[in-house]
Amino acid sequence: MASETETTASTQQVVTRFAPSPTGFLHIGGARTALFNWLYARHHGGKVLLRIEDTDRKRSTQEAIDKILEGLDWLGLDFDEPPLFQSDRATRHAEVAMQLLEAGHAYKCYATPEELEEMRAQQRANKQPMRYDRRWRDRDASEAPAGAPFVIRLKVPTEGETTIHDAVQGKVTVQNAEIDDYILLRADGTPTYMLAVVVDDHDMGVTHIIRGDDHLNNAFRQLPIIRAMNAIEGGWPDPVYAHVPLIHGSDGAKMSKRHGAIGVEAYRDEEGVLPEALFNYLLRLGWGHGDREEITRDEAVELFDLDGVGKSASRFDIKKLLNLNAHYIREADDARLAALVAEAIGNKADVALLTQAMPVLKPRAKTTHELAEGAAFLFAKRPLEMTEKAAALLDDESRERLGGLTERLKAENNWTIEALEATTKSYAEELELGLGKLAQPMRAALTGTTTSPGIFDVLVLLGKEESLARIDAQASPAGPR
């Protein structure tokens, strides 16, 4: 509930965390979780921390860690301390497990894999819940064979119920009997995820756990550890939980690659999205402030709180993202966009020319890729490669008209939009043509395409020498010279 969250936030420093597993890319759901944690901490003047949950050593990779860090940095999400790597803390995790064991909140379980499989087979046959039957909960370890391997299991309360006042989901209650005595330490002494997460959150001072609602059940499994450790040594308060609904595809189904479930870096590299656009879009996926759609980073920090997070799953819509991206492209600094486009085009790009061209390229583009495509005519080499539609515009009659236009443009000493438009309109009037009948063949001759910025913008950007050379190349009735 928002009121409980606000009370907690006002009495202690807010500390949130983002805790990705480096077994793959930073997907869109993870990025939104990171964003919500970052915004909540920044809004309340607290700290946001990063923990890399790399205990799955077989699947965790350095490449994935690098991609996650790169994606977070690109989105502008900074953290208040260096990343904590969960794999470095196994000794501390085991220490807490032993404290729980010694205090009677955990026990050694000597059940063999064969015994556990037989137990599960019986449960399946009897259509019972698949749950450990606590066979070693009250037995003495002396009953086990000497030197037999064991795991340490948490002694979860079996009576009563546990209620969480979730800052997003509201009041949620689970019967304690539904939670089994799960493993804290494996037979080889390594900690399980459930133990490691609780210990790390405590040691990092995390006050608010903001994560996907697929982790809501985990909260009921993690609270018994927290409360047992609080009983043992004190100083282990319950955190404030906020379980955020998941993101679905535009069709309401679980997100997959066909919906856009790709790494954050792919939105930059493959979709041509600006970080501020993705930031804004992720913010609006499940959180709202009235009818506001376009919200800056500073405004988001000022406005964000958990009471604005909805309880329903959000739908990811790439079209909405690209429409928002078009807005941010129009708002972006020309020199910054020119640098991005120059990188995409390669060595042949003239950054100064691209910067000059941005005001006429930006209104037509939804992505940086479209900016690069729109700018391609600036760096095309003669003879221009023509699209099929452009070539169809350059029939003999059009070439003859271009020949007459070339003569007039050669005499033009004032190479500005206004002067060039006046000269071209005058020539069109002589021919008793609408301007479009002349402008379209001009566009084909100048760009090799049928779409471009305004034709007089194109003439100015290309300059007099290059413009005349391109038009003249198409101005002979006999064909290109």
Can you put this structure into words, describing what you see?
Belongs to the class-I aminoacyl-tRNA synthetase family. Glutamate--tRNA ligase type 1 subfamily. Keywords: Aminoacyl-tRNA synthetase, ATP-binding, Cytoplasm, Ligase, Nucleotide-binding, Protein biosynthesis. This is Glutamate--tRNA ligase. It is found in: Cytoplasm. A motif ('HIGH' region) lies at residues 20-30. With 481 residues, the chain is mainly alpha-helical. Among the domains are: 257-331, Glutamyl-trna Synthetase, Domain 2 (Glutamyl-tRNA Synthetase, domain 2); 334-379; 388-473, Orthogonal Bundle (Arc Repressor Mutant, subunit A). Helices cover 47% and strands 10% of the residues. The chain contains 19 helices and twelve strands. The strands form five sheets. The chain has a three-stranded parallel β-sheet. Strands 4-5-8 form a three-stranded antiparallel β-sheet. It has a two-stranded antiparallel sheet with strand order 6-7. Strand 2 (47-52), helix 3 and strand 3 form a beta-alpha-beta unit. Helix 18 (435-447) crosses helix 19 (455-473). The longest helix is centred in the C-terminal third of the chain and has 19 residues, at 455-473. The protein is elongated, with a radius of gyration of 32 Å.
Summary tags:
single chain; 481 residues; mainly alpha; Glutamyl-tRNA Synthetase, domain 2; Arc Repressor Mutant, subunit A; 3-stranded parallel β-sheet; 3-stranded antiparallel β-sheet; 12 strands; elongated; disordered C terminus
